[in-house]
User: Fold this.
Amino acid sequence: MCGIVGIVGNQPVAGRLVDALRRLEYRGYDSAGVAVIENGKLDRRRAEGKLFNLERVLSDSPLDGHTGIAHTRWATHGAPTEDNAHPHFVDGVAIVHNGIIENFSELRDELIADGAKFSSQTDTEVVAQLVARELRNGVEKKAAVQSVLSRLKGAYAIALMFADDADTIMAARSGPPLAIGHGKDEMFLGSDAIALAPFTNQITYLQDGDWAILHRHGAEILDFDGNKVDRQKQISTAATFLVDKGNHRHFMEKEIYDQPEVVSHALAQYVNFNTGLVRDIASSIDFTKMPSLAISACGTAYLAGLVSKYWFERLARLPVEIDVASEFRYREIPLPAEAGALFISQSGETADTLASLRYCKDNGLNIGAVVNTVESTIARESDAIFPIMAGPEIGVASTKAFTCQLTVLAALAIGAARSRGHIDEKQEAELVHHLVEMPRMMSTVLNDIQPQIEELARELSKFKDVLYLGRGTSFPLALEGALKLKEISYIHAEGYAAGELKHGPIALIDEEMPVIVIAPHDRFFEKTVSNMQEVAARGGRIIFITDEAGAAASNLETMATIVLPNVDEIISPMIFALPIQLLAYHAAVFMGTDVDQPRNLAKSVTVE
Ligand code: F6R
Assistant:
């Protein structure tokens, strides 16, 4: 979603603001802009599309101020045009904004009735208009901003600056995150610490309902009632992460190939390699006596949760209530206070997931966060944090975060199974042994399947629709395969539980629609093969993703068979995720799409 940066600096800031925006590109955007204060006046450059357009405009017509704000916009209200791009200016007030002002139309009507003229279709501009009106009425800046904040409804992060005050940026957070960076005689503002990493690692996170006044030498942080609040300065680890594609064409490709390494970081956190058992996590969340576990998340993170439902239920005999967070938050699910809840989020900022978490918290549940960003809001609001150790994921389509989420959830499910007395130490050691083998298996698979997948992806990119089928944990994987393909290649794809084929989707089968069947040689294999036969009997083309035992046991004619090594059921979702990720990636490359920043998508979805 939108990215915000600001600098109250002691040297020209435009170039540095754009560099910081580049580090926020991964969030997804469709226009960008930068504004500075120069000799008591606001000036700005804005451009549709990618940051290089903005850079071109800036190189033709540079900006020279020492204080500025900048923004990458992911359009919500109004098309992604230059006029709608931020920063917006109203009578010497400049604003950038992330999120949605829900009561903007009411405020806009009020302002228009009061004579205001709007130059954009955005909800953002109403905030600048309201502040400008207060200032015209003689209210001083701090009071003006505070009174305007009290009128805004919705989830938003904003940054404001004023033409006549080059020593100040004001910022407010009600929902989407904002981080303040402390420099030497300079202060910074950013949507996350990654954006600020080149400038400083000393970060203060605003909490929901905080607003701040940044000056060159420090920041004052207040609540929306104007009371000073104390927020800790912390040393961020974001600077230690390299945001770099290495030798890869795209971040997504790099992140796919990073998986053996990052998954081993996740394992090291949850597995004791000396004892060969899962580390004791009982102190942070106790699965022992809980009657049930609620899990909620969005998109790929939800699908990782759905895989884990099979593990928690089968291994730990722990019933799981799971739903996508946008539904979960409103279902008013009756949940016993003794139950546990897990929220899975790469960014840790997803609005619906956070709302679901708060619902469970209000119901007294013990909350665990499975997150990549340990400094995120979801992490901070949880009783226990389970870092997935994936490192920053820049490609919008989640890959390494998915397999790291699965790794952590598998370890948690094994730990829960042990503490609930459903597996003994020998069984636990066996499961852990398979987990420990996983990084090596992943490396082998990534090396072995790449040429075949690339060739197959070329074929696949000629089709308009694709169906994915699977049973057991391969069912959520089928959903994930379809999600990955559609989001980056724009080929229409659907995932189904293989057993559901006969209940509707079989009507679609013809030679124009390849069916990708994910079927390791597990307990469900024979049944999935029967479904494949139904597809074959109707002239459907099958892409069969299986293991050596599965390939040996099936003699069906396929469009392609991808054979993976035989692995234990506990790690098959992580291993089988690799061909579906690579297939989507190479199909997208053939289609010529913007793989890392697919159209309309955002990395961190901080609005409903
Ligand atoms: C798909 C994808 C999304 C995210 C979803 C949740 O490839 O990346 O579906 O998984 O938006 O995001 P987080 O995990 O940040 O809560």
